[in-house]
Amino acid sequence: MLKPCLSLLMRVAGRLIFPGLPLLWTLAVALPAPAQRPGNATPEQKTARAFDAIRVSPLELYMFLREMPKGGDLHSHLTGSIYAESYVKWAADAGLCVDRKSFLLFSPPCDDASGRPAASTALTDGVLYRRMVDAWSMRNSQYSGQSGHDQFFDSFGKFGQAGNNRYGDMLAEVTSRAAAGRVDYLELMLTPDNGKSRELGRSMKWPGGAASESPAGLAKSMEQMRQELLRLGISQAVQEGRDTLNMMEARKRELLKCDDPARAEPGCKVAVRYIFQISRSNPPEQAFAQMVAAMEMARVEPRLVALNLVQAEDTLPSMANFPQQMLMLDYLHSVYPKGNITLHAGELAPGLVTPEGLRFHIRDSVRKGHARRIGHGVALAYEDEPLDLLREMSEKRVMVEVCLSSNDGILGVRGKQHPLPLYLKFGVPVALATDDEGVSRSEITREYVKAAEDHGLGYLQLKAMARASMEYAFLEGASLWKDASRWVAVKECEKDRADRAALSGGCQRFLQGSEKARLQWGLERSFADFEKRH
Question: pLDDT digits over 469-504, tens only?
Fold first, then answer.
């Protein structure tokens, strides 16, 4: 008993020195767990022990985690989720050309003699093929002559043309890979209106944002512009977005044979919702028009569940536009209070921008941008008053979408330099996500492996993250959980057990009324089955 007591005294003393650390966390990690006789262990406890026994073996760890149910992937860019091998094939099918030096795609005519062959040449030229894959992803990025950051973001401009009219093929690839990784639910970022709202914005002049304008005056100016966008036909952009979703889902059903129960592939069962992405670098009138289109589309299209700001956070336009974009979101939240907002914020590291540029993006995204979730949040420690921010995020239940492979490859932030342990320590909800698994050459299981290897997380912590991914998903309906901090089910289902097929009448009725609760219950059943086998 001497060692635990000394540990407790040291941690309580540490709290006196660092008053920001919650006492409950201090006591929880200091006190020893109660003894559990092996014969009385629950399936969950046995699975946790099995995990601890194999975690020193990387291959066994991967095999274990691949079969573990993972709930949802809430931070996934559709175009970035596609592997370069698919883009090479699509470029060949489209008859595009490729430059052997820059690996940019372009429309015919091609000229092999001048180093600009048809992309289809890569299907028989192994050297060209592998160089295209390297140029269009993070594979072998250490030999590219660029930083991981530049290699990553530059790749999109090279393969982009190959993805034209391929949203349905992308959806089929992404859902198939999700199903293989035991993911039940995806939220995919894309621009579904194919730029129509941006074009409307381009025809307008941004009315607000003058330094002398009062907050009330700025809100009035934005309302005038919103009304003008509605008059000009933002509804056409909304319809374009809905048509895009219909088209891509029909193509996915065709490719995966979803309408044939006997032949349907596993990806057909993955539930999908969409997030309207807005480009950070757009001029203000165009970004605002995209935001209005996103909010209007979400009002009438249940498959579209949120908006997000995308592109590199550190570029000159992104940094310059950030304060103004937060004002836009603050205003739009007052007009569309039910519209969900999730924001990339703090996808930054020291040296990438000035120290001043690290100090406010996460905080402002929560307070001014009304973000219910934060993507990345890597620069947490460099924000002003970070401990207060952590407490605020914990109290407001602002979830962080943690993308470990992406943060490592793009920012060089990994292991002890990553803030994941801080978020966990302060009770901020977190879930693991892939970000751009194709470009990063990753997939959801490897995110779980990195969490276990780089941060020492155990099975129960990983299971809580999987549950959190469904709890904070932008799904319709009430949650299965009355208390998501302890995973206590609602009254209607509190006596039901996930390892039994039969459900009480009250729980059946509750699940029938909530898509979210149905998927959460499905995850619980998957866990029960998984834990029986371990």
Answer: 999 999 999 999 999 989 999 999 999 999 998 999
Angle at 164 between CA 271 and CA 288, to 5 degrees: 75
Whole-angstrom distance, CA of residue 232 vs CA of residue 294 = 16
Asked if residue 172 has pLDDT above 70, the reply is yes
Check if the beta carbon of residue 173 is closer than 8 Å to that of residue 256. no
248 close to 167: Cβ distance less than 8 angstroms: yes
**47-73 pLDDT per residue, tens:** 999 999 999 999 999 999 999 999 999
The maximal CA–CA distance of the chain, rounded, in angstroms, is 79
Among 338, 400, 336, 337, which Cα is nearest to 365's? 400
Pairwise CA distance, residues 157 & 461, whole Å:
38
> Which residue bears the tokens 């970022």?
189
C-alpha separations of 212 from 208, 328, 352, 507 in Å: 10, 17, 31, 57
Per-residue pLDDT tens over the stretch 334-356: 999 999 999 999 999 999 999 99
Instruction: Say what the pLDDT of residue 461 is.
Output: 98
Q: What is the DSSP string of 258-296?
A: TT-TTT--GGGGSEEEEEEEEETTS-HHHHHHHHHHHHH
Report how far residue 249's alpha carbon sits from residue 137's, in angstroms, rounded to the nearest whole number.
26
Residue that the structure tokens 């995308």 belong to:
310
Q: How many whole angstroms separate alpha carbon 170 and alpha carbon 533?
A: 33
Q: Say which residues have a Cβ less than 8 Å from residue 409's Cβ, sequence separation at least 6.
A: 138, 141, 148, 152, 440
Q: What is the chain's alpha carbon radius of gyration, rounded to the nearest angstrom? A: 24
Give me the pLDDT at residue 130, please.
Answer: 98
- Cα–Cα distance measured from residue 226 to residue 289, given in angstroms and rounded to the nearest whole number: 8
CA nearest to 525, candidates 476, 444, 467: 467
Count of C-beta atoms within a 10 Å radius of residue 62:
17
- CB distance 200 to 237 below 8 Å: yes
**Main-chain phi, psi angles of 76, to 5 degrees:** -145, 120
Name the pairing type of β-strands 271-279 and 481-483. Answer: unpaired
* Main-chain dihedrals φ then ψ at residue 3, nearest 5 degrees: -65, -50
What are residue 187's DSSP bridge partners? 273
